[in-house]
Specification:
Number of domains: 2
Order of helices and strands: HHHHHH
Length: 118
């Protein structure tokens, strides 16, 4: 019976950091394994053990900055006074465009309270 060579080198903090960055960038597991000098199954085991998510959920700020850079939104003075209704319509549209998250209802509640609406 022949022994198979095991590549059980310990994971370093640098390896973990690289793994996290590559997962956030949605790099395929085979490429991660090649870059780190490990097997794909070894990488998958580490991902499962450390519960490293695939991809990165964008923050509201990142979404707004990206949309602004693409010219999809503009900042400036409102065209009309009393544009709260326009703002809530925009928030509603953003809710549909962006993955729903916990902060939309809180923001809507805050804005209604700020403008004294029910």
């Amino acid at each position: 019976m022949t022994k198979t060579k095991k590549n059980n080198k310990p994971w370093t903090a640098a390896d973990d950091a690289e793994l996290i960055l590559m997962r956030e960038a949605k790099t395929p597991t085979k490429e991660i394994a090649r870059a780190l000098g490990r097997t794909p199954s070894g990488v998958m085991n580490r991902i499962q053990n450390k519960q490293i998510p695939y991809g990165k959920e964008l923050t509201f700020r990142e979404v707004v900055d990206t949309a602004f850079a693409k010219g999809e939104i503009e900042f400036g003075e409102p065209d009309e006074k009393g544009s709260f209704e326009q703002l809530t319509d925009l928030l509603g549209q953003m809710e549909e465009d962006i993955k729903p998250s916990k902060w939309f209802p809180r923001l809507r509640k805050f804005l209604k309270k700020l403008f004294g609406l029910k």
